[in-house]
């Protein structure tokens, strides 16, 4: 009987071993890129749940987490090797560096962390401050799409997206510290460690090498570099400013961003509009910095083939293309009339700067080629600018008190900026024959611009 039990035991074991093999269950150690960055479990879509599963770019089915967050489910992360890495192997050190500088390395997680960056209400307030105080002069982003990304993915769907969030928060926190906001109230205290985290994370999120930046995300990183350069200006951090501007011009050259015809062919018109606004904003910042610091202008307007932001329907920040008969009535996008005119003034100012510096060449032996005939006439340029100024509509020449009317506030910024920029452009052109650059008038212009905008910002909002 015992033998029969043993036989039954072996037989059952054989059956179990062949029909239901005993397999040690292991935890799924690899998640998709989106879940990995957040330390979340990559959940498959349950059968019969009714959830539509789309295919990821790699051909695999999207996980439930990515579907819930509206993110693209990708599996591009290269798993890091386990064990102690050799310190003597050059290839090991290179691989180790690549692992930590890559998009999804285990040492870096590019996502919003409430414990480090503050509450969601605080972040939303900082984003709003950017569009209230920075956007009127430097319209780097589209408000609607940015807020949609914040609501859907906390601007953490990619490394570049996270870098944009941190750069915006860093710049807005500078404005809060300086008191340059319409409404100083915050839903939660903005602590010094928050500002430090924004600055550090924004800079760390930028890849160390341009080889790591693909063409599909180049514009995102251009926006980050531009925003950080403004933050550096607020902080009076000259090394950081020049680092960001230098990296910006490198990416512009690498991806021919200064040539609109080379932009991706699949861009929608709203996407082109944002790029146009951003490009001319950075051009103005470049001329501005060249006048103050004395460096060369690295994006001359005659070598840049990018159109001005146009006026079309259905896009934030653009004038209605249907036309307007009454010039005094504010309309969505009216502020672009003044904003584009300011760009005209900066283009004149660029040539004024070149004229002012031409005397430096007299003491140099540069051959028989004369540079004077190569320069455009400043008088002719100013004549056209003056004619255009006289034809500006009232909303571009008269500022109204700050109010809840966003369009009126945007136009008010342009009025102040036009007055100050026109003053420095004309004064510099009249003194273009000076042998040395006299910065006193420019500093006065800067003081006037800051004072005027500060008064506008400090004005209480009418109910």
TrEMBL record:
Keywords: Nucleus
Biased composition (Polar residues): 86-99
Domain of life according to the entry: Eukaryota
UniProt signal peptide: none
Keyword Magnesium applies: no
Keyword 4Fe-4S in record: no
Gene3D superfamilies cross-referenced by the UniProt entry: Zn(2)-C6 fungal-type DNA-binding domain
Listed GO MF terms: DNA-binding transcription factor activity, RNA polymerase II-specific; zinc ion binding
Biased composition (Basic and acidic residues): 7-23
Disordered, as annotated region: 1-23, 84-108
InterPro entries cross-referenced by the UniProt entry: AtrR-like, Zn2-C6_fun-type_DNA-bd_sf, Zn2Cys6_DnaBD
Domain Zn(2)-C6 fungal-type: 26-84
Record's protein name: Zn(2)-C6 fungal-type domain-containing protein
């Amino acid at each position: 009987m015992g033998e029969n039990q043993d036989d039954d035991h072996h037989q059952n074991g054989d059956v179990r071993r062949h029909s239901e093999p005993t397999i040690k269950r292991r935890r799924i150690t690899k998640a998709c890129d989106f879940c990995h960055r957040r330390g979340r479990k990559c959940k498959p879509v349950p059968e019969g749940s009714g959830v539509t599963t789309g295919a990821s770019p790699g051909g695999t089915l999207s996980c439930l987490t990515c579907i819930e967050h509206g993110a693209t489910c990708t599996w591009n992360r290269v798993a890091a090797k386990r064990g102690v890495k050799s310190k003597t192997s050059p290839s090991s050190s290179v691989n180790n560096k690549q692992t930590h500088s890559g998009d999804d390395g285990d040492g870096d997680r590019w996502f919003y962390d409430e414990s480090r960056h503050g509450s969601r209400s605080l972040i939303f307030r900082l984003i709003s401050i950017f569009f209230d105080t920075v956007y009127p002069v430097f319209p780097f982003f589209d408000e609607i799409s940015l807020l949609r990304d914040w609501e859907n993915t906390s601007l953490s769907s990619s490394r570049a997206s996270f870098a944009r969030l941190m750069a915006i928060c860093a710049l807005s926190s500078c404005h809060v510290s300086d008191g340059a906001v319409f409404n100083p109230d915050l839903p939660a205290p903005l602590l010094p460690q928050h500002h430090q985290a924004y600055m550090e994370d924004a800079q760390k999120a930028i890849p160390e090498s341009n080889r790591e930046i693909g063409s599909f995300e180049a514009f995102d990183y251009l926006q980050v570099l531009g925003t950080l350069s403004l933050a550096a200006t607020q902080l009076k951090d000259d090394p950081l400013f020049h680092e960001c501007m230098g990296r910006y011009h490198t990416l512009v050259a690498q991806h021919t961003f200064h040539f609109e015809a080379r932009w991706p062919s699949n861009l929608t018109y709203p996407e082109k509009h944002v790029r146009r606004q951003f490009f001319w904003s950075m051009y103005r910042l470049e001329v501005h910095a060249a006048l103050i610091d004395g460096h060369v202008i690295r994006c001359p307007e005659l070598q840049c083939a990018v159109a001005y932001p146009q006026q079309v329907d259905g896009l934030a920040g653009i004038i209605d293309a249907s036309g307007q008969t009454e010039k005094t009535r504010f309309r969505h996008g009216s502020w672009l009339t003044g904003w584009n005119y300011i760009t005209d003034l900066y283009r004149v100012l660029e040539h004024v700067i070149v004229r002012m510096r031409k005397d430096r060449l007299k003491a140099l032996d540069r051959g028989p080629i004369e540079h004077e005939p190569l320069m455009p006439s400043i008088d002719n340029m100013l004549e056209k600018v003056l004619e255009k100024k006289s034809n500006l509509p009232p909303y571009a020449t008269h500022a109204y008190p700050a109010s809840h009317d966003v369009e009126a506030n945007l136009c008010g910024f342009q009025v102040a900026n036009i007055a100050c920029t026109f003053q420095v452009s004309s004064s510099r052109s009249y003194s273009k024959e000076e042998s040395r650059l006299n910065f006193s008038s420019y500093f006065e212009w800067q003081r006037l611009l800051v004072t005027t905008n500060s008064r506008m910002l400090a004005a209480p909002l009418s109910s």
